[in-house]
Every structure is written in C-alpha cells, then in structure tokens.
Amino acid sequence: MQLPLQTRNALQAASPFQQRGGSSSSHQTRRTAAPPCLRVRASIGLPAEGILPVGLRVESLPRHVAVTIDGNSRWAQARGMPTSAGHAALQPALEETVRLSRAWGIRVLTVFAFSDQNWNRPKEEVDFAMGVFDRFIQDNVAQFVRKFALKEVKLKAQNCSNRYKINITFIAFSMPCSMYMVVPSGYCKTETHHQQEEIIMFCRDGIRLHVIGDLSRLPTYLQKTAHDAEEETRSNSQIDLMLGISYGGRADILQACKKIAQKVYNKLLRPKDIDDSLFADELQTSWTDEFPYPDLLIRTSGELRLSDFMLWQSAYTELFFTDTLWPDFGEAEYLEALMSFQSRDRRFGKRKL
Predict the structure, then answer these.
(1) Looking only at Cα atoms, what is the longest distance across the chain?
(2) Distances in Å between the alpha carbon of 117 and those of 140, 294, 308?
(3) What pLDDT band is residue 39 in, cutting at 50, 70 and 90?
(4) Across the strands, what pairs with 67?
(5) The predicted structure's pLDDT at residue 43
(6) DSSP state, 240?
(7) Active site residue: 70, 139, 228, 240, which one?
(8) In the beta sheet, which residues pair with residue 180?
(9) DSSP-assigned beta bridge partners for residue 319
(10) Please, what CATH class does the domain formed by 46-139+205-342 belong to?
C-alpha cells in the first residue's frame, strides 16, 4: 500500500540531502548495503562478528538499548529548513543506529519515535512523520532487491521478470539498516536451489521488528506496513527492533492493568497471583521476552526527562543524555553513550560488598 501522493511528494521535497544541495548517493548506498552475514560483512564496512571499536568490551555491553528521538525540529530550524526536513532527516540517523547496534551485538533496540502526546502537534507535521516511519520500513524496495539478486546471488537480469510487482514470495526485514526486502513471485526463473537457500539465509540473518503503541490511531497504510513487517520478520533472530509509535508509558501500564483486571473478572486469574513478573508480561514490551528491560536509555537534544517512555521498564535503566540533536546522532555519539554505560556500577538496589 502506497503513501498518499501528497505525503510522498512532501517527503521527497523535504529530503535534507537534496535541500542542502548535496548528493544523496552515499546515503543511498548505505541504506541499500548488503546483509550482515559473514560472507559480505567486510564488503559493506561492518566489523566481523565479535569485533568491537576500541574501548568497548563485549561482556560490558548493554543487551537492550532504548533511544528517545528528539531534536528534529530544532535541527531543521538551525539550518533554515522547514520542520518536515528535520523529520525526514531522522531516517538516516535511525538507520545508522540500527546498523551499529546489529554490528556491535546489541540484542534489543527500542526506539521512541512518536509519543501518544505528539498527536497534539499540527496535523501536517503529524502526517509527514507518519510518512517517514512508513518509508523507514519499506524504502528502496525495488532497488535493494535488484542489487542483492544481481550482485550477491549472481543472478542475471535477462533471467528475471516482473521484478517490481507486488506479487510477493517473501518479505524480509533483514538489513542492519532496517530495509524491507521484497522478492516478487517469479523474480528469477532460473535461480538454483543453492541460490534460493542463500536468499533464505540472508533474510533470517536479520532484524525482527515490532511496533508498540496505540496502533489504532495510525494511518491505515502504516498499520498495514507495520503488520506485514512484523509477520515476515517473525523468524529473524539477530536483533529485536521495537519502534514506539503512538506509545506512552502510562498508557502501556494502564492497558496492562485492564487486561489483568479482565482476567480476574473472568476468573482466569486470582488477585493473589499478580506479581511483578505477571504484570510485566502484560506490557507491550514483553514481546521481546529475552531482555524486556532496557539496560541503557539514550535521549538526544539535551532534554533531561523520560517523557513518558517505558516508565515501568526503566526502574534500573542507566540514563545517558546528549546535547546532540537526533539527525546528527551517529557512531561517535553512540560510542560515547556505550562507553559511559560501561563505566557505571550497576547494583540494582543491592549494596556492593
């Protein structure tokens, strides 16, 4: 399902790469990079599995990192650009953060992209942001598939047909930079069984996506995009990516209370059986059951507050605040946050002996 034409045109016009007069080719290359399997890691600039930047220690890395995106509007205003350009610029920074998280072995990445209170912003701004989130999931579909199929699997263009139709054989949210991969039915008439296995291995070496929040308030096209991505990445296992869109920590707690109350009312649960663990299981973030609580929460733009993000889950989360605006958040800033985390003495309420 496509975005409304007006939104697509606005997204194109607001590209910060175009408005600054520069070429988007380098950004485009990064977004359509090859998958994070060992066979191609070196060719796309990712470290081999287990190799970290100097100063990071694998045993001290957070397993779950949460990030609050903030500062897009200020980033645009500082450059004399419209607010929409700031929202458009959040995408490359988000892709880079996902790529680095995957490369450095972060197990879960949760991104607070849009609060349930952000609906109070001007409709034009909200509509544009929804388009950015949709594009983040499924941008560059045809281009990425063609590059992978022709370059990585060594398939020949003359043997491929119906390349860009939406007759889907499988979809895989497999990139370290979070791109939808679509392989249409009949894409390659002469591909071998070995090539098919390579494609399947490729898509499984990737990202498992889940969108949390009040999804009923999202545009229909974004609901469809999110649902399809979740279904098709269900088997991926390298990193869990949770996107908070129309999410609020208090609303999450409230909906968990309602579900528990309904179970008690239906005599499926006794009040005395309600404990921390049971309550946590009803939160939306319980989807990533291995590491549901963030070890590190990063907030950009210099604001020093949680802003209703993962309130229950962040009881013992280490906080890192940076003055960097989100579109400027990159490898150096992420590395600084992880280094800070490694220096913390986490006692979880216990006294150090």
Answers:
(1) 69
(2) 30, 22, 9
(3) very low
(4) 111, 298
(5) 38
(6) E
(7) 70
(8) 173
(9) 297
(10) alpha beta
Q: Which amino acid is at 313?
A: Q
Choose between 217 and 95: higher pLDDT. Answer: 217
Distant-in-sequence, close-in-space partners of 157: CB < 8 Å, separation ≥ 6: 150
Report the distance separating Cα 135 and Cα 336, nearest Å.
29
The answer to whether residues 250 and 281 touch, using CB atoms and an 8 Å cutoff, is no
The torsion angles phi and psi of 212, rounded to 5 degrees, stand at -115, 150
Q: What is the rounded distance in angstroms from the CA atom of residue 202 to the CA atom of residue 152?
A: 10
How far apart, in Å, are the Cα atoms of 265 and each of 253, 271, 329? 18, 10, 47
CA dist., res. 291 & res. 304, Å (int): 25
User: In terms of pTM, does the model score above 0.90?
Assistant: no
Q: Is 308 a catalytic residue?
A: no
Rounded Cα distance, 95 and 193, in Å? 32
User: How far is Cα 342 from Cα 339, in angstroms, rounded to an integer?
Assistant: 5
Please give the DSSP secondary-structure letter assigned to residue 148.
Answer: I
Strand partners, 65: 109, 296
What phi and psi values does residue 154 have, to the nearest 5 degrees? 65, 35
Domain coordinates in residue numbering, the chain: 46-139+205-342
| % pLDDT > 90, the chain | 52
Least confident stretch, 48-57, 181-190, 202-211: 181-190
Q: Which is more confidently placed, 2 or 61?
A: 61
- Measure the CA–CA gap between 76 and 256, rounded to whole angstroms: 37
Strand partners, 184: 168
Which parts of 199-286 are beta strand (E)? 207-212, 239-247
